[in-house]
Every structure is written in structure tokens, then in C-alpha cells.
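Hello,

I think I submitted the IPE job twice by accident. Can you confirm which output corresponds to this input? Input:
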Amino acid sequence: MPKDPHSDLPAGPRHVAIIMDGNGRWAQARGRPRLFGHHAGAKRVREVVEACPDYGVKYLTIFAFSTENWKRTQVEVAGLMSLFRRYISKEARALDEEGVRVRFIGDRVRLDPKLIKLMDNLEELTKTNEKVHLTIALNYGGRDEVARATKRLAQDVADGKLRPEDVDEETLPKYLDTQVLPDPDLVIRTSGEARISNFLLWQSAYSEYEFIDTLWPDFTAEELGRLCQGFGNRDRRFGAVKI
Ligand code: IPE
Ligand code: IPE
Ligand code: MG
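Support: Only one job matched these inputs. Its output is below.
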């Protein structure tokens, strides 16, 4: 991978965000129920997280469940919620030992209290880790996030803590769920769909995108490496003209 001229780190993306799509089709291709695909998908996460330091990726954000995914059958939604509970309980220790700091973004209001407790505990357990920052988007929607942020911002204005004339591009992100996280440099979507499905709408304004055909349960650390390498060769202009 090319080196960043200003540091010893590879010139790869510092923050990678992944829309982990294709679990259902992966299972269907094997004649198995969709949940089988979700379980296989969950198993891929550890390898990908652990590979991040090799490619200079400090922040990894993964889309696990969208605000729109409640539209699925009750069986699939319940199965996913139970998978999240099991996944957190089972993986907490390993993630902590690997130096991973875990955060969750999304609206917790609709989530089961038992799941919320596990999420809180994992955030607390890993809060001093800094090798990799893993953010899990659970009941997350970009529009929902902006709406919730705006509600809190409006409340601060109503309470006299913020003046409308002071609201700018620096103010709003402080109210978003992502708060301290840098914007994603690279957004990857697996499974061949070329859309963002309400993921990180504000934050990905200048992200590079990679839409790949691999179904999420087949995604590997090597593939992440290849995409990070490709990122290093891109010319990010942010609206300016380079001379
Ligand atoms: C992504 O896989 C996981 C979630 C949305 C929870 P899908 O379940 O969307 O898989 P496909 O797109 O139906 O193959
Ligand atoms: C996006 O995938 C959400 C997650 C990966 C969690 P979907 O499968 O829900 O997106 P659409 O419905 O194809 O847009
Ligand atoms: Mg899908």
C-alpha cells in the first residue's frame, strides 16, 4: 500500500464504514432460512475488526440493523435481536482483549431493555481501549439520526443555550450519534446493491464508495485489504482543484 507522505501509516482510509448486505441471499443460495445467513454474517465481523490495524484503519463502523429493517417478518426481526444479544455476550471479552473500543449508534428507544443493558455494558467495558474503534449501527437510520439531532438542537435553542445564528456545519454534528467519530473515508457495501439505504447520510458527504458483489458472509480480511489499497490510489479533491 502507498505510504502517506506525512506519516509512517499506509495512505489507506482511517475510517471505514461497511453496509453488511447479502446475508439473506447467501442463505437462500444454500436453501437455508435467512437467519442462517445472519449468523454466518455475524461470524465475519471478528476477522474484519482484527485486520483493521494491518491496513491503518483506526475506525470501523458497521451497519447491523436499520430503522427500516423493522418492516421484515416478526420471525426475522426477533431472530436478529436475539442474535445481537448473543453476539454481544459472546464476543465482549474477545473484543476487549483485542483492544477494541465498541460504541453503538442508532435509536435505542425501540430496543429491548436486555439488549440495551448489554450494549451499555460493552461500551463501558471497552471505553479505555484505543487500538480499533468499532461502531455498531443498530436501529440506525441517517434521516432518523438527523431528525433526533435537530430535536435536541431545537430544545437547546428553546432553553436559551444556543442561538439560531450560531448554528452551522460545526454545530449540527455535535448532536449526531457519531459525535466524536471522524467522517468515514471509505464506505463499502457488499452484495452488489449500489445504494446507501439511509446509512451515515450527513457523515458520508465526501466519502469514497466501493460497491462490491461479494455477499457479506463471504467477505474476508483480504478483501478489506484490497479495498484499502485501492483507496490509497484515489485523488480526493473535496471540491477543490489540485494543481
Ligand atoms: C443484511 O443482509 C443484514 C441486515 C439488513 C440485517 P440482508 O438480510 O439484507 O440480506 P439480503 O439483502 O436479503 O440478501
Ligand atoms: C441495509 O441493508 C441495512 C443493513 C445492512 C443493516 P438492507 O438490505 O436493509 O437495504 P435495502 O432494503 O436493500 O435498501
Ligand atoms: Mg439486504
